[in-house]
Every structure is written in structure tokens, then in C-alpha cells.
Fold this protein.
Amino acid sequence: MSNPVYLALDVPQLDAAKALVEKVRGHIGGVKLGLEFFCAHGTHGVHEIAHLGLPIFLDLKLHDIPNTVAGAMQSLHVVEPAIMTVHASGGRAMMEDAKAAAGENTKVVAVTMLTSLDERDLERTGVGGTPHDHVMRLAELAKDSGLDGIVCSGQEVKAVHKQWKDGFFVVPGLRPGGKATGDQKRVVTPRQARDDGASVLVIGRPISRADDPLQAAREIEATL
Ligand SMILES: O=c1ccn([C@@H]2O[C@H](COP(=O)(O)O)[C@@H](O)[C@H]2O)c(=O)[nH]1
């Protein structure tokens, strides 16, 4: 089985980002490039990282009217990402058009509820119910819209996997100690997420901000 860990490369300098990937490449299965990286380095930066030879997950969390999101997906064919994200709350038509516009080798997955949010945050946005209810509802919408899977926390992945057997599940908000730290609120360990059905484990700061990123990546891999 291939390594499910995708390193979140939220690092502003391109050279430092490349050096980090080179350092830990034997202990990860892919690289996740998000808004911080893309705003700084654009498609040029994506190509530079892709040249290192690992699969690329482009996490831009697109959320706009269907025509605009479909146009953005088309424009990103040049970088051929293995995985792309849109927001499930963009609605069915947006997700259908995003999937139709994506390259044939790109999995499109929908962000349900950010792992930095909890039930109180949800309530403040006017959404009632628990994170579990909200994630399940949006997962069903993503499935009906023809997407490949969703992004959710490790606290929901087991339930979603039960209902969507062949879905592709991306789980961020992972902490080796299993404790919520900093901005991440719905947290589990990488091992628990894997055991509960995650397809991809997104891990950033526990590796990138570790005193010894190589050792941190090795230790996480050993738990899986
Ligand atoms: O719900 C979500 C969706 C995406 N992310 C992204 O994952 C990484 C997590 O980084 P850590 O440093 O391991 O916290 C980051 O790039 C987020 O943009 C998420 O955390 N939660």
C-alpha cells in the first residue's frame, strides 16, 4: 500500500519548500500545495514541486458560481494535479461543473466543514446541528454531484466511509499526540484517521515546523 501521508507545504519560500520535500520524500506519499503556496508561486511553483516526482494535491478550495469555478478548473489543467478541492457549500451545480471541467486524472473532492471549526463556530454561521450532521449532509451532496470524495476531520471519516464505501476521503487536522493545538479543533491521530477509512492523511506543521522534520516524518510513518 502506498504511503497515505501528503505533506502540507505551507512554506512561503520556494527553495525552502523544495528542500523540505527532498528531505522527507522517502516518508511521504505526496505533497499538498494550498493557498499560501499558490498565492506566492502560482502554477510555476506547482511545476517546480511536481518536478520532484511526487503526486500533487492542489488545495485551492474553490468556491464561486459554477461558471467561474469550472473556468478555474480548466485553467489548472496545465499543472495536472492528482487531487483538487472545491467547497461543498458552493452547491450541487458548482460541484457538477467543477468535476466536468477537471482533467480526467484529477480527483475532485469537496471540503465539508473545516477542521478549524467546532459546533459553536457552526452555530455562529447560522448552521444548526452537530459537525457530524453537517459533514454527513454535505458528503451526500458531494456524492450526488458526482465528486470523487470529500475532505472532513478524522472525527467524521468513519461514519462517512460507512455510507460511501468507494469514496475518496482526505483528512487534515492530524496531530501525532491526538490533541487539538493552535487553530485545529477537530483533531485525531494519523493512525486513527487511517484506521477509520481516510484515503489521504494531510499533515503540515507536525512535520514542517518540527525541529527535525525528517525524524518527525519517520515517526509518523512508523505509527501507520
Ligand atoms: O478542513 C481543512 C481543510 C484543509 N486543511 C489544510 O490542511 C493543512 C493542515 O496543516 P497542519 O499544519 O497539519 O494543521 C493546511 O494546509 C490546511 O490548509 C485543514 O487543515 N483543514
About this structure: The first strand starts at residue 5 and ends at 8. The CA atoms of residues 119 and 125 lie 10 Å apart. The chain has a mean pLDDT of 97. Residues 8, 10, 34, 111, 114-115, 151, 172-173, 184, 202-206 surround LLZGTKA7 (CB under 6 Å).
